[in-house]
Amino acid sequence: MEINFPGHSAGEMVEIRGKIVWLLGSLQLVFLSVTFLISIFISHRIAGPIFKLCQWFEASIQGGKIKKDLFFRKHDYFKEVAESYNEFTETIEKTIHSKTDEIEKSISSLNDAEKTKVHALLKELKEITTSSNPV
């Protein structure tokens, strides 16, 4: 079945069809390129915070100290995770400080050897909570 368009020859129709195919192919390439760039941009906004959080935990584990003041880039996702982590470390720090204060008050009833041991342990606890070196 052949469709005739008045005023256009078969050769012109083939030429128009070729231009339309070229235009649609070009638009598809542009669309794919834009989609690719957007997906890279969005994935970095997700992967970046996760990567930093993993680095933060590894540094805390390796250093044996609680890392504080976690933050992500301005447009990253998961900022609430950083805020929760910071609140968590603050709570832990306050708890450790209050418990060390209680322990220091209780030390007076110990003998000298026990006091030395307890002071050394308290010093370690304080060192754990005083690190705030960002990664």
Supply the key terms.
single chain, 135 residues, mainly alpha, 3 helices, 0% strand
Write the layout of secondary structure elements.
Elements: H1 10-63, H2 79-106, H3 112-129
Helix pairs in contact: 2-3
Task: Describe what is shown at a glance.
The protein has 135 residues and is mainly alpha-helical. Helices cover 74% and strands 0% of the residues.
Low-confidence stretches: none
By DSSP (H or I, 4+ residues per run), the number of helices equals 3
Helicity range: over 70%
N- to C-terminal distance: 71 Å
Number of domains: 1
In angstroms, what is the radius of gyration?
A: 32 Å
Portion in strands: under 5%
Q: Strand pairing plus helix content: what structural class?
A: mainly alpha
Largest sheet: none
Determine the mean pLDDT.
84
| Number of E strands | 0
Description:
The protein has 135 residues and is mainly alpha-helical. The radius of gyration is 32 Å and the shape is rod-shaped. It has helices at residues 10-63, 79-106, 112-129. Helix 2 runs antiparallel to helix 3. Helices cover 74% and strands 0% of the residues. It has one domain. The mean pLDDT is 84. It has 3 helices and no strands.
